[in-house]
UniProtKB/TrEMBL annotation:
Catalyzed reactions: ATP + H2O = ADP + phosphate + H(+)
InterPro entries reported for this sequence: AAA+_ATPase, AAA_lid_4, DNA_helicase_Holl-junc_RuvB, P-loop_NTPase, RuvB-like_N, RuvB_wg_C, WH-like_DNA-bd_sf, WH_DNA-bd_sf
Positions of transmembrane segments: none
Family: Belongs to the RuvB family.
Protein name as annotated: Holliday junction branch migration complex subunit RuvB
Region of interest called Small ATPAse domain (RuvB-S), as start-end residue ranges on this chain: 193-263
Domain-related comment: Has 3 domains, the large (RuvB-L) and small ATPase (RuvB-S) domains and the C-terminal head (RuvB-H) domain. The head domain binds DNA, while the ATPase domains jointly bind ATP, ADP or are empty depending on the state of the subunit in the translocation cycle. During a single DNA translocation step the structure of each domain remains the same, but their relative positions change.
């Protein structure tokens, strides 16, 4: 398990979910940076990609295949569109789960134009036969289309125009090495620093025509869990609040009060995250406690606690997964304004005190 597992379980109505919801999909097109210059943060990936694209352009060649790895909402789709725009090429967007049969992939590949960018999101979720077809397509710009079944089946080779595959994955480690090796460039997307998210918020506010001051943007950035998609979503909710309850201007106070209404705390924890932490601290004295027990205590499924709430709590250094169970860190006690049992009354007595509290 790692911090990227958050999207595997549906997260209905979660303001801090890193995956896109219907409203995001509609608004995101308007907020997407259109070129590398506008793309905030990810310095390393940006610089490296800039070189890859410029070199290909100078040679008059199609850019090498690019693999982008990183958590949801960090800008992989955005970067793939930028790659196409910088190369002056059209882009086709699809995803691993949409390609269940090799034939689905053959149909897409055979209709690509020369130089086109094919964006394959969640590439680690493609079916095996499709994946094998992709190996040959990436390396030789050729696929073998199998016609017929059983002993009479024949492979008809099909030439493809050169294209650039941009694969996106939340789990680079899950990609089979032969697939990984066929990418000329791999960019690892990191979570964004608060200052970078501030820039994202300012930029989006400008595009949405919302007035926001520096402290207001910092307040939203600090609660956005290192993720631009969440920053943009929180900004839209804060904008609603500013419009209805304030004078339309987003200040620190307006942002803070609005996000309190939406139950997103100063560190970006939402109701579920806090419920897990509170149970761990108040009911189990900070642990160690087993995952199932913790899940029952918060009235959620085991998987929801493990895959939806925990990755962020672990990333934030608030919770640790140990062989003996889940354990709260000193930062967790501090965040919820509680005193750890040892400090409260010393050793076992402190524990007892908490259970009794
Ligand atoms: N570096 C950035 N600068 C400004 N805005 C960004 C940046 N990265 C992402 N965004 C914004 O965040 C939103 C989500 O980005 P995007 O869809 O590219 O993420 P993703 O990594 O492809 O997510 P998923 O894996 O869930 O599809 C978009 O609205 C985009 O405009």
């Amino acid at each position: 398990m790692n911090g990227y597992d958050e999207t595997d379980i549906p997260e209905p109505d979660r303001l801090v979910a890193p995956g896109a919801d219907g409203e995001d999909t509609a608004v995101e097109a308007a907020l997407r940076p259109k070129d590398l210059g506008e793309f905030v943060g990810q310095e390393k990936v940006r610089q490296q990609l800039d070189l890859v694209l410029k070199a290909a352009k100078q040679r008059g060649a199609t850019a090498d295949h690019v693999l982008l790895s990183g958590a949801p909402g960090l800008g992989k789709t955005t970067l793939s569109m930028i790659i196409a725009a910088e190369m002056g090429a059209p882009i086709r967007i699809t995803s691993g789960p949409a390609i269940q049969h090799a034939g689905d992939l053959a149909a897409i590949l055979s209709s690509l134009q020369e130089g086109e960018v094919l964006f394959l999101d969640e590439i680690h979720r493609m079916s095996r036969p499709a994946e094998e077809m992709l190996y040959m397509a990436m390396e030789d710009f050729r696929v073998d289309v199998i016609v017929g079944k059983g002993p009479g089946a024949t492979a008809i080779p099909l030439e493809l125009p050169p294209f650039t595959l941009v694969g996106a994955t939340t789990r680079a480690g899950l990609l089979p090495p032969p697939l990984r090796d066929r990418f000329g460039f791999t960019g690892h997307m990191e979570f964004y620093a608060p200052e970078e998210l501030e820039r994202v918020v300012h930029r989006s506010a400008r595009l949405l025509d919302v007035e926001i001051d520096t402290a207001g943007a910092a307040e939203i950035a600090g609660r956005s869990r290192g993720t631009p998609r969440i920053a943009n979503r929180l900004l839209r909710r804060v904008r609603d609040y500013a419009q209805v309850r304030a004078d339309g201007v987003i200040t620190r106070e307006v942002a803070g009060t609005a996000l309190q209404v939406y139950e997103v705390d100063a560190r970006g924890l939402d109701r579920l995250d806090r419920a897990v932490l509170e149970a761990l601290l108040k009911l189990f004295g900070g642990g160690p406690v087993g995952l199932s027990t913790l899940a029952v205590a918060v009235g959620e499924e085991r998987e929801t606690v493990e895959e939806v709430a925990e990755p962020f709590l672990v990333r934030e250094g608030l919770l640790a997964r140990t062989p003996r169970g889940r354990v709260a860190t000193p930062a967790a006690w501090a965040h919820l304004g509680l005193v750890p049992p040892q400090q409260a009354g010393g050793g076992p007595r402190g524990q007892q005190g908490l259970f009794g509290a």
